């Protein structure tokens, strides 16, 4: 019985993670006025530089919308240093861990 | 200061054979030591406007014996590279200290060349601009005087701008050096990091920044620490934003106007006046869409791509940029340069960058990107962007990038802006249907 509860919980949090990832993708596309659909951002594709091709100004813009939406202040010296924008999935993971909204 | 001089001398002695040093340090202290070490050993520093691979290669062509100095050794586009020494050696262990030589300030001839700064020329090759030590120091001394930084107090100065760009070089490196203030090694990026770094500084403290970063700080929701001075440059601030910055930081805000070629040439306090006041000896001659600047500390007469209106002997209003000019987040280029780079890519038959319609994006940072239409049947967007990244700074990558069958050139081969814009709009609507 507890195994089933545990795996239902895992499924539920995986589903949450997926929906947050999709939500963050929408936020990025909207904030940066990108010409692609949110679903086109592959979850493990690098966001910065090659990959999605964002630059430091975009990163700043995303940091602002993320702080407004989720109450998370991005810091360069946080433990995930350099990896927050490694991919959409990593960004969503960071938000999950630190969100206050 | 003895530590600084000791670090400078040590680094100067460790340069290999070279007459130029490409200073790519991101740590502002390392950068300053590197700059000074080159100066006292008779070497000129090369300060590039971007670190795009093609730019670095061209600097290697400009000065084949150049050594690239960086915080850490990394492979650097075929250039010889050296890392800033990681081992800190205390000044008191310096032999020179015992003879008193360590605290003797090196004297530099004012005609000595401190650095070359580079801009993007319309031919696609970076253009070098000589900066002599004396003129730079005269300029930043005037800057300090106008900002009221020449008193006995030692200020702490933090900047969000890189030391390689003209603005950062003057305000965040040379001004502190010339006027006895403390510069901060770090260059914080996220609003939370900028405010944390500011809070750690003793008063009086100053922030050197740009409209992009200042907007971000105001929009971030982070508590802003009280400051004693905010300096802004790279694009003019709207009056309302200037007033909000002064209010939220409880500090006076001054703006600098200038260029890589001329250095800073005018200043204003935007909450008091829209007029800019020229630096001593500088004169401006508006000529249609451009203005010629010369005199004072300016090395040579320079054409500025801005529409200026003189309002007095040494005051002017800024009306707008020339249509060829591209300024994104303080990085400057020209459509001519970008077009040259685009058309040099194998597979591109014809291509043109342009300013798209201003769209109300509600962006927090107020950035407008540059767009491009391209005829390149054998390329896709991904490959084209990779090729562009080699040649131009990432901020200038086109948004949107539109592939078309043909560019709407008129009879004389020119590309009317309105035609480019409607072509892009049609291509976009076709793609989404």
Look at the structure and give the CATH class of chain A. Answer: Mainly Alpha
In CATH terms, the superfamily of chain A is ACP-like
Query: Given the C-alpha coordinates, what overall shape of chain A results?
Result: globular
Assess the beta-strand content of chain B as a share of residues. Answer: 25-35%
Oligomer: heterodimer
- Percent range of helical residues of chain B: 25-40%
Largest sheet of chain B: 9 strands, mixed
How does this model look, in words?
The complex is a heterodimer of chains A (101) and B (433). Chain A has 101 residues and is an all-alpha fold. Chain A has one domain: Non-ribosomal Peptide Synthetase Peptidyl Carrier Protein, Chain A. Helix content of chain A is 56%, strand content 0%. Chain A has 3 helices and no strands. The mean pLDDT of chain A is 85. Chain B is α/β, with parallel strands linked by helices and 433 residues long. In chain B, helix 1 packs across helix 2 and helix 5 crosses helix 6. Chains A and B meet through helix 2 of A and helix 7, helix 8 and helix 11 of B.
Give a brief description.
With 101 residues, chain A is mostly helical.
Keywords:
heterodimer; A: 101 residues; mainly alpha; Non-ribosomal Peptide Synthetase Peptidyl Carrier Protein, Chain A; 0% strand; B: 433 residues; alpha/beta; GMP Synthetase, Chain A, domain 3; 9-stranded mixed β-sheet; 6-stranded mixed β-sheet; 26% strand; globular
Question: Any chance you could write out the topology, listing elements then pairs?
Answer:
The complex is a heterodimer of chains A (101) and B (433).
Chain A lengths: L1 H31 L23 H15 L17 H11 L3
Helix pairs in contact in A: 1-2, 1-3
Chain B lengths: L1 H13 L5 E4 L4 H13 L3 E4 L5 H10 L4 E4 L9 E4 L11 H5 L13 E8 L5 E7 H14 L9 E4 L6 H14 L2 E2 L7 H9 L5 E5 L1 H9 L9 E4 L6 H11 L2 E8 L3 E6 L7 E3 L3 E6 L2 E6 L6 E3 L1 E5 L4 E7 L3 E4 L2 E4 H9 L6 E5 L16 E5 L5 H11 L9 E3 L13 H16 L1
Parallel strand pairs in B: 1-2, 1-3, 2-5, 3-4, 7-8, 7-9, 9-10, 10-11, 22-23
Antiparallel strand pairs in B: 5-6, 11-12, 12-13, 13-18, 14-15, 15-16, 17-18, 19-20, 21-22
Helix pairs in contact in B: 1-2, 5-6
